[in-house]
Each structure stands twice: as structure tokens, then as C-alpha cells.
Amino acid sequence: MTVPQIKPVVLRDLLNADTALRIDLPDDTSPALPGLDRDDLIQLAGRTVLIATRSQASTAAALIALDGVASAFVICPPDMSSDLLRSIAETAGVEAIITDHSDFDIGMNIPVLVRGTNNGIPDAKGLQQQETRWIMPTSGTTGRPKLVAHRFSALIGAISSTSASTNPVWATFYDIRRYGGLQIFLRACAAGARLVLTNPTEQLGDFIGRCTAAGVTHLTGTPSHWRRLLMSPFASQIDPAYVRLSGEIADRAILDALRAKWPSAAIIHAYASTEAGVGFEVSDGQEGFPAAYLGGLPGIYLKIEADTLRIRSSRTALTYVGPDAPVLLDDDGFVDTDDVVERVGDRCYFRGRRSGVVNVGGNKVHPEEVERVINLHPSVSMSRVRSRRNPILGDLIVADVVLKPSASAASELDHTKLKDEILSACRRDLARHKVPVALEFSASLPLIGSGKMGRQHA
Q: Which of 390, 393, 405, 416 has its CA nearest to residue 444?
């Protein structure tokens, strides 16, 4: 008896045929390029493809066309150097490249197809449908990215089947070529929704203006994205029904500020990473997550081991990619997230990244722990805590602070008073070795491409 093969679910199956996905991007003045067609699919079938495009719309077209056709594809953010793209291509065993760069060259003898957005989905009938591996670089705040392979079924594991009935209009600060943005792209696909995207060169006011014109109901980004928006006059132009944070620790200061700004909105902070997938959501307005989650969520298993959060679920990635890649899953199928978590009573709190800890005189300091205290000051919009190397004393803690506009315009004497107040709060709430030895006010703080705070050490 022959057992019939079950075809895997692919992205084109997820698309809502009645209400097609519409992607809203800033005006694109790049030359018009042909989209992918059936001949391209035949050429790329069964191959590992690198997707390296300037336009998110071109990326979206390639994902829809190639899922279920290619053996694997690597989704590359737009800010990668030629050297890094070449290294990724070599590591992943890339056999073809799709780009919308007319002058694309990474110094490898690999077929390059220069294609733009596609107004329709190329016909894939007659081509053997297979499970395509979705490969993405990690997007941490430090270090060289690793390549992570996902199944499509894992990527859509957190998307509710009822999402299409709510008629959302999505917008995101994320780029869809990173895990957080890809999740929002897939949610919009499932809902047949309009999706408003930004790019690194677009001014915040222009993006929010397009959100307003589109009637955006669901807006997502990192806590750093949200802090920047709340600092601006543009936050008053929108009234989202759904506010979502992920990618960084959502501390009490940002959660309270969002609730004060949009008291009727659903404010959700989600735990997700490229390796662990979407772990869980928290909707009670509090930082951290209920300790009851450690008892098990539907299909999600959490535990704290050696102070870090471990996750096992059907949403986690398959593996790291490459001949020298580290092991992703332990013997019990858990991913070590590298996020340090402390249980206090019936709540679990994120303290920071294990790999981002600063050693001060033999004592460990999580920069996020210090930022949490600084951000609670009513005059502070956001802060970045980092180490500064001293040739005699070793690593010291310093802080860069962005004030709210009203406080920023204050006199120098008032700024001196603010510094004293912030440092006094640190001395009151933190161990001595965690208190910054220097605090400087800045007009802004740098974010990396993923929207997270850049945490380079000085």
C-alpha cells in the first residue's frame, strides 16, 4: 500500500485570495525591473537561493514565489557588506542569487537574477512542491551573525487562524528581512491586510503620516522604536488599537508610557528571537512574565536553567547552518536563549543578555538592569548603559541619557540637578558596583538595523 505524500503548507497557500496583501512603502524611484516568472522558478527549483534586495517589496515577491519551489533561501537584510554576503553565501551553499541591484557583485561565480517586485504570483504548477528552508541571519546587538534555518510551519506557528477576520491594517518599524518584521509580514499575508513599511532613510514624521493615511490599527516595533516615537510630536497623530513590542526588554517605564498615551489600546510585549521563534505574549501591562508560564503554555515549554531562559516548541528553528555551526538544540530539544531571567515570587523578570554582561571589579552588571532604573525617572525618555575601559580600574559603568523634550530644553543648572537625581536613584536602587561613574545627556542614541539599541563598549 502506497502512503500518499502530504504536501507542505507554503506561503502562497497562506495568502488571502479575497483580500490581497497590499504593501505600502515610501516612493521608490529605482528603475522598473521585471518580476519573477515561471521560467525563473524552473531555473531555481530545488536550489539554495540568496535573496539580497534593496526593496522590501522585492523580497516579499521572492518569498511568495520561491517558498515550496527552492530547496532553501537565505533572507538578507539590506545593510550587509559584500564581504559578509559572500561569507553567508559560502556558509549556506548558495547556488543562485536574486537581487534588485543592477550592479550586484560579491565576487562569486553564482548565477544572479536581477528582478524587482512581482505584480502576480508566478505559476508553479507542475513543479514539485517541497518544504523550503527559510534561513535568516541572527540580529543581535553584538558579534557576527549566525545563520538560522526555519520551517515555514514554525514561522507561522504563532499566527491565529482568526486573524483574517479582524480586518487589521498593520504597520511596523521592523524590516521584513529580519525575524520580527517577517512575523508581521506573515500576519498581514494571513489577514489579507494592508501593510505599511518604512525604511532607514525615511523620516519618522513621513512614516507616521503614511500610517495615518492608511488607517493603521496595529503597530509594532522594539521598545527603542517606541521610545523614539513617544519623544516626537508625531505620536499624537495616530491612535492604534494594538501596540506590540518585542526584541528588547519591555521595562515598566515604556509600558506605563504607552498606556498613558493610548489608554484604550491593547499593549502586548512578546518574547521572540530568530532561534527560539515566537515564545509567548504578555498582555497584563506588567514587565516580565507570569511564573505560571514555566508550568507550560499550549505547545510551549519554558524553564530557567543556569539563570537563562530555555524554550522548547514547534516554533523554534531547526538548526544553525554551516559546517562549523554550533548546536542549536540541547538533547531535550530546548534552545538556550542567552537571556538571563530571575524569578521573584509569581513573576519572572528579564535582567539582560548573558553575553552582554559587564564585569566591574569581578562583579557582573547587566546594562539593562541599570537602564530600567534610569528610565523610571520622569524626565528620561531612554538611556543606554555601557562599559568604559579604564587602564587602572578596569571596566566602569557609564550612561548616555536622552531627556524628554521639556527637560532637554531646561537650563544647565537644571540639567545638573537632573543628573544628581538620576544618580541618586541608581545609588538607592542598585548595588554600588552597578551605579554609573559618569552620566551624559545625548540628543539621541544609535539603533542597529534590527531596531535594537547598539551596545558597543567604549
A: 405
Q: Bridge partners of 97?
A: 50, 112
Contact present, 174 and 220 (Cβ < 8 Å) = yes
3-state secondary structure of 261: helix
| Structural domains of the chain, with CATH | 12-344 (3.40.50.12780), 358-441 (3.30.300.30)
The cell for 413 is 543648572
For 176, the grid coordinates are 521584513
Higher pLDDT, 388 or 263: 263
Give the amino acid at 427. R
C-beta neighbour count of 253 within 10 angstroms: 23
Answer yes or no: are the C-beta atoms of 102 and 31 closer than 8 Å: yes
- pTM listed for this prediction: 0.91
Whole-angstrom Cα distance, residue 70 to residue 122?
13
Q: H or E stretch including 228? A: helix 223-231
Burial of 356 (0-12, 13-18, 19+ CB in 10 A): buried
Query: All 3 cell numbers of residue 229?
Result: 516615537
Q: Is 121 helix (H, G, I), strand (E, B) or coil?
A: coil
The pairing of beta strand 218-221 with beta strand 169-172: parallel
Distance CA 343, CA 281 (A): 17
The answer to which of 12-16, 245-249, 298-302, 410-414 has the lowest mean pLDDT is: 410-414
Which is more confident, 407 or 456?
407
Reading the block at residue 4, the C-alpha cell is 500518499
DSSP string, 179-191: HHHHHHHHHHHHH
Extract the C-alpha cell encoding 373. Answer: 532604573
412: left (phi over 0), alpha (psi -120 to 50) or beta: alpha
Identify the helix (H) or strand (E) that includes residue 395: strand 394-403
